[in-house]
Design goal:
The protein folds into 2 domains: about 120 residues, Rossmann fold; about 60 residues, no CATH class. The chain is about 40% helix and about 15% strand. The protein contains 7 helices and 6 strands. It is globular and about 55 Å long. The model has no long low-confidence stretch (mean pLDDT about 90).
């Protein structure tokens, strides 16, 4: 019997393909066993990137094959995070949810309460907490090298590789999108972690 924890990855866009799949595959004790993406081209990419992996077009399909799954990583479009998290809790799966966990604090509490009721863990994924510049700043603040901090400013510079008008930039509340939720979550998390 394997000591590895089986992982189901939902979403194989930028976050799933570039961040989550490589992190899962490089973490001892985790085994990426299945990927969900409704995009046929992304399923083909996942098949090429991850030979032998189970591929599903829908989460509903994946929920029927959980025998070797302990954890779900939700890296799909923001608007899907809450319903997928509630389904994962219903199936007794621990969860890592790419930020934002939810669009509102009330929705986040619904997810947290569902996880608690199912006795599973839920963790938001905040990858920018591990950036080397941030870790250096955090160490300097902790050791007092910078003296008393009176003001903190932060921003994220980025190369724009996504076309305008995609869901990440949508201000529609249904999309949980826009630059504030996409990058603001990182800035707030870093400020709180300092």
């Amino acid at each position: 019997m394997s000591n590895e924890r089986g992982v189901l990855l939902i979403g194989y866009g930028l976050a799933g393909r570039v961040f989550h799949a490589p992190l899962i595959n490089s973490t001892p004790g985790l085994a990426l066993r299945a990927v969900v993406t409704n995009d046929p081209e992304r399923r083909a990419q996942a098949a090429a990137d991850l030979p032998g992996i189970r591929l599903h077009a829908t989460a509903e399909e994946a929920w029927t094959q959980l025998e070797d799954i302990d954890l779900v990583v939700i890296a799909s479009a923001n608007r899907t995070h809450v319903p997928l998290a509630l389904a994962a809790a219903h199936h007794g799966l621990h969860m890592v949810i790419d930020k934002p966990l939810a669009a509102t604090a009330a929705q986040a509490h619904i997810v947290i309460d569902a996880a608690a009721a199912a006795d599973v863990q839920v963790h938001p994924f905040q990858n920018r907490r591990w950036d080397s510049d941030f870790l250096t700043l955090r160490a300097l603040v902790a050791e007092g090298s910078l003296g008393r901090i009176h003001r903190f400013e932060s921003r994220i510079e980025r190369l724009r590789t996504l076309p305008k008008g995609n869901w990440r930039e949508s201000a529609d509340p249904e999309d949980f999108g826009g630059v504030l939720l996409d990058f603001g979550a990182h800035l707030v998390d870093q400020a709180l972690a300092l």
